[in-house]
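ESCALATION

Customer reports they have been waiting on this structure for their group meeting. Please prioritize. Original submission:
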Amino acid sequence: MTPAHAHCVKHISSQGPFRIASQAQRIRTKQMRMSVKKTFFILVCTVAFFISWFLYMHKPVIPKVSTPPSLPTKETISNMTNAELEELYYTYVGNVDVLCTNRIRLGKPDDGGWDVCDDIEHRPQPPCLVYSFGINHDFSFDDAVSDKYGCEVHSFDPSMGQNDHKHSDRVFFHNLGISDRDFVNDKAWTMKTLTSIKKQLHHTKINILKMDIEHDEYKALPNIIASDELKDVDQLLFEIHYNPSDVQKAIIEMARGLELLRDLRNLGFYVFHFHPNEYNYFTSKMTGRRRTSCSELHMLNVNQNRE
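Update from on-call: job pushed to the front of the queue and completed.
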């Protein structure tokens, strides 16, 4: 090998390790760039997901309200047969006409518990207030709604024979009933209107108004409607009753119930859940069908929380 050739071989051999190292460095740099791009892409996607989730959860949702079944005039109702009136009553009472996407049961799963709409636009937010009329020694709903949302709850029942007391940190009991006027009844129970009770307790807005007051809804609710107290209520939960053993009385109460529901719908209260009371089923004397004389209605004020 000539000296010149030897020089060339030596030169090539000495450059080999540097060339390999340079290639390895370029590969590492490329890998690092790809890793940074991948990390950045994942970060952007994660941020976009949480922004989308936040906007979805906090958007002003307008409830999807369906058209309720048409209610005939009072004169038409009075001319109906008993069977026709009963069919209309159960069609109207059992109609769910507003969408609640997240409904939860608070309190007992059966009688004593009540459903609340937990959608963001109707969910109680502290400081929140709940009025619960008709306890019968069962505080399961009152305790649950207080624990779930941190609301102040006022429980009312004059039939329990208990004095006013603090049931728990946020639940307060009152030996008091609700009616269409302020008076003491023949059982020595103190009865007051919702307006008088709110004034006594220095309250204004009620997030949830619950009533299970054994036929007295026909006294209390018309007064509440007439006094415009429902404008400050977001959710209305109540049990509607009639006496099936007396056909004539049942007809009167079903007609009154239909009128009551129409007045509530005219104010923007729509049923988001219907729950028949399973302990009050009977065979109707008018239609021969299996019915329940007590129905729990859970309503949303669709005029609340809307721009």
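Sent to customer with the following note: DSSP finds seven helices and 15 strands in the chain.
Escalation resolved.
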